[in-house]
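Newbie here. two chains, one complex. Structure please?
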Amino acid sequence: MEPGATLRDEVPSIRLQERGIPVVAPELVRAAQSGDREALLTLLREIENHVYRTAFYILGNEQDALDASQEALIRIYTKINSYEEKAQFKTWIQRIVTNICIDKFRKAKPTVSIEEHDLNFTAAKNVEDEVISGYLAKDIREAIDKLPAHHRTVVVLRYLQDFSYNEIADSLGLPLNTVKSYLFRARQQLQTLLREYQKGGVRG
Amino acid sequence: MNCQERMELMHRYLDHDLDELEQQEMILHLQECTDCAELFERLKQLSDELATLPKVTPAFSLVDAILPRLDEIDRQTAAKEGTAAKETAGPINRRSIPWTRRLRDQISWKLFGGVLAAGIVLGIFVMNEKHLVLIPSAGMKNSDPSTSSREMAASGRSADRVDTRSAAEPKKDLAANDGAKSLGAAPQINDAAKEVDSRQQSAKSGEPSRPNSTISGSSRSDAVSGTDQHKVTASSPSGENGFGSGSDSAAGSADNAPDSKSDESAQTFAGPKQKNGGTGTSDQRFTTMLAPQDHNMMSPDGKLTAVIDALKVVVRNTETNESVFTSTYTWQDTDVITFLSWSADNKLTYQVKSGETIQTFVIDINAKTETKAADTGEGRTSETKK
């Protein structure tokens, strides 16, 4: 997957499951595009939490998230005129922030493979005792950090932005089936990881 | 349908993507297959947990944090637009900061001395080589600056002739001329050459790092740069006043001295450098003609001449060369002393630029006193027009 190339493709927006973040009022977007600086700043303020949240869960720490989301907001500020209404504004925003995060992510740290991680939890014993008793949010965060970048991004858009498959596909410029495949695989991996955590008892 | 295929149903269920039929099928399967049922429970729980992950928010307003950078972006955008619309020179910014201010922010005043020195060198070069082009382009309306500057360069200090000539010329021309002339008349060649060389060095090294500034946004050749120079002059407050633009004795007439003019000459000569940073040929050419130390100024009646002697301002009798007044201040090699005006009641105003500090002094020759007129700080010289 070469996100740099594919994420720029325009995928028509299909509004099947429009939930999640309130779409920024189109009037505001238009005002911002027409050169109204105040409107543009208002718009940025409305989206900054969403931008930050995505960055935080993709990058896994506050400092990188602050950097990436500020960069994303600046890019939105300068590129507002390149937004076209055929796409949803919120997916356009998320495309920008996820692109930045994935770039940063690639540069910053190599993904820890799940195999490597598994070494720490080879001594799984009480499979029978295992009770599904709720994963710790901290464990979930750690597990998310272990996902490959694109899988992680899909999970973040699905759960933190409450995006539909189509919205995720729009945001990432990926085919719908790829989105599903990433998401399902990511959930599978997370589930495996979290189960290891519980079984290992190290972090449970 | 096997378990693997049903697993996709489970996932899609979690994403609210199943129709009723698919949902029934999945539930039926889960009732039969304990493995899948267990997995489904896990996935469902995972999904619920993911959905309730904390909706983190940044610790501070990101938009507030990036506002300065957004301003900077606007500034650069405006500056780009500005290069096109420079001629009109009005505020072209989207925001309310005057573009003169933005311009100032983008100029390294530390480098200005060097920039200016290089500019003077080029300016003279241009005057010598292409005066026909320069005259109109430097924003001057008439007169022949190149002639007098060349004469000066050639003859050393024929002050009388230049004086007469200059007095007849419009003010702007005088100022521009003076800078060239004083440099052209060169008794102390070696020092001067060194000084200018070093400045030029700094100007060159500084130039690449100079931010995208509206002054320079032109790729035209040095000879045509006059329009730009003119703009710079108009836009920049008189902060550059007298950076080595020393008026010589020819500038002695009182009406010629006010800083707006020496300012203009400074700016004018700074102009060419902005584009070329000084060429090797002109370097060599001018090491033999420069003498910034010889920034003389003659009193209105011509009886006295102010000179810089041993890094001090000294007022001498023009005829006898006898010292009438010696300043108590001693300056550094690197300081730039500029005589600004010599009033009819024998008050000589001059200005010293040391690094970024510009100080203005008034010598009352009749009273034999010297007073510091004003610390003009960032380069404003409004107080000098007394």
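Moderator note: The beta strands of chain B are 297-298, 304-309, 312-317, 323-326, 336-342, 347-354, 357-364, 369-375. The radius of gyration of chain B is 34 Å. Thread marked as resolved.
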